[in-house]
Amino acid sequence: QMAGVLQGQGITSLRLDYRYPGDFQECVLDLLAGISYLGKDEYGPVVVVGHSFGGAVVIAAGAASSHVNGVVSLSPQTAGTASVAQLSPQPLPVVHGKNDTRLPYTCAQQIYAAAQEPKKLVLYDGAEHRLAECRDELEELLSDWITATLAAPVT
Fold first, then answer.
1. What pLDDT, in 10s, does the model give residues 31-82?
2. Which residues of 106-123 are buried (b: 16+ CB within 10 A; e: fewer)?
3. Which of 21, 72, 92, 151 could be cross-linked to 49 through a Cys-Cys bond (beta carbons 3.0 to 4.6 Å apart)?
4. 48 Cα distance to chain centroid
């Protein structure tokens, strides 16, 4: 689990369960409450990571919060990502598997195209929606990126 890897590096992680899964606005509010909690208890800076539906939630919450220093969107849907350009100057890597049968990787390409710099698009050949086929590469990418983003000066 990625949270355990980060914890081993002295990075606090908060895993969030939504009160109303599937209700996009409520899920964004839940994430904003989690971000606020971390900011209030001085755990900042904050990086948010979301997968699939959560990949859109982190984009919306990241655009709405001044406490977010980076956003990672994994296998994201496009619904709810209209605010992606507002993330800048927070960095945004968008990651997707090219063999995703649930959400096509063109979703990631559309989000990436709408985003402002700094941004990064990572597409894994042979990876499905859960990205299990590229687990090791993804964990390395996330560990390196999150560590570097948290160490960067707050903008």
1. 999 999 887 767 778 999 999 999 999 999 999 999 999 999 999 999 999 9
2. ebbebbbeebeeebebbb
3. 72
4. 5
Helix 53-64 × helix 24-40 angle, to 10°: 50
Counting every residue written for the chain, the total comes to 155
Alpha helices (runs of H) in the chain, residue ranges in sequence order:
2-8, 24-40, 53-64, 106-114, 135-151
CA 32 – CA 26 distance, rounded (Å): 10
| Cβ atoms within 10 Å, residue 40 | 10
User: How many beta carbons lie within 10 A of that of residue 44, not counting itself?
Assistant: 16
Q: What is the pLDDT of residues 75-132, one digit of tens each?
A: 999 999 999 999 999 999 999 999 999 999 999 999 999 999 999 999 999 999 999 9
| CA 2 to centroid of chain Cα atoms | 13
